[in-house]
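Recall the central idea of this unit: under ordinary conditions, the amino acid sequence of a chain determines the structure it adopts. In this exercise we apply that idea directly, starting from the sequence alone.
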Amino acid sequence: HLQLVESGGGLVQPGGSLRLSCAASGRNSEYWAIGWFRQAPGKEREEVACLTSSDSSTNYTDSVKGRFTISRDSAKNTVYLQMNSLEPEDTAVYYCAAVKGVLIIYRLCAKYGINDYDFWGHGTQVTVSS
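Accordingly, the structure predicted from this sequence is:
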């Protein structure tokens, strides 16, 4: 079983920065890939960034490339999402999720669909507003 707990959300002005954290714990806290997703009011949940466990390769959705960075501290079993140059359109609840129980293992996290992510955190609110 895997537990994911997000933290670091809050209110920030446009152009500002935030760093989200996702702490993984549990009897078996390993996973194949981990990702950050977000869901704005009235919109579908979308993947923002992902990281492949085997080689720490990453992938980003186009709207955050160059502004967001996903990284991992293996010693702390924690994944981060550094968000810079934040825009009002980034306002959403951000979720951390992990791929653990799939039958097909991909080398690249971008190959996994949202339904492959079988462990989710409860989310943290990010609001970008002046």
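The CA atoms of residues 8 and 20 lie 5 Å apart.
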